Amino acid sequence: MDETAGIYAQPSPYLERAVQVGVASGRVLRVTFPHDPDDDALEDHAVLDRIMAYLEGVEDDFSDVQVALTLPTDQRSVLESVRNVPYGEQVNVETVARMTSGIDHTEDADLELVRTALDENPAPIFVPDHRVRDGPSAAPPDVEQKLRSLEGL
Questions:
Q1: Is 67 helix (H, G, I), strand (E, B) or coil?
Q2: Which of 22, 69, 85, 136 matches a 20 to 30 Å C-alpha distance to 115?
Q3: Number of Cβ atoms within 10 Å of the Cβ of 145
């Protein structure tokens, strides 16, 4: 990935809004879906080009993209587990809990921790929370639905 730090955005006809990516030190910090991107956002970044190709139907798991998950350790562990859910597959919150070390899928507090981590996901698409069927997504509902549809979920 390009090491250039900054904010990058491109309009997505499929999403009917822009995709905006914040990058620093070669890591994605944040992915958002504004109707109008930041005025100072640049359009040209390799990772943004990959997102646009994905939104046009090119299968990409983005596993090589580094994401800065600056969250509490337990939430970061949950989101790292979600990154392992393959393209075109769905899991539920309980399965994510089972996939995450130190999380007990039978404990309500731990299931709530999974939901909180999904809700606070800083990088939808790279951390594909749209693949968690019964959990919240950090993407807006219309974007979440289109990402699911794109992958046949």
A1: strand
A2: 22
A3: 14
82, 45 Cβ separation under 8 angstroms:
no
pLDDT digits (tens, 9 = 90+) for 17-33: 999 999 998 899 999 99
Any residues with CB less than 8 A from the CB of 151 and at least 6 apart, and which?
87, 88, 130, 131
DSSP string, 72-125: -HHHHHHHHHHTTSPTT--B-HHHHHHHSTT--TT-HHHHHHHHHHHHT-S-TT
Burial of 101 (0-12, 13-18, 19+ CB in 10 A): exposed
Nearest alpha-carbon partner for 92 in 60, 34, 133, 35: 133
Q: In angstroms, what CA-CA distances link 126 with 39, 57, 105, 107, 120?
A: 24, 15, 24, 27, 13
What does the alpha-carbon distance between residue 98 and residue 48 come to, in Å, rounded to a whole number?
32
70-81 core/surface letters (b: 16 or more CB in 10 A; e: else): ebeebbbbbbbb
Residue 6 CB partners (closer than 8 Å, separation 6+): 22, 23, 41, 42, 45
Rounded Cα distance, 86 and 24, in Å: 26
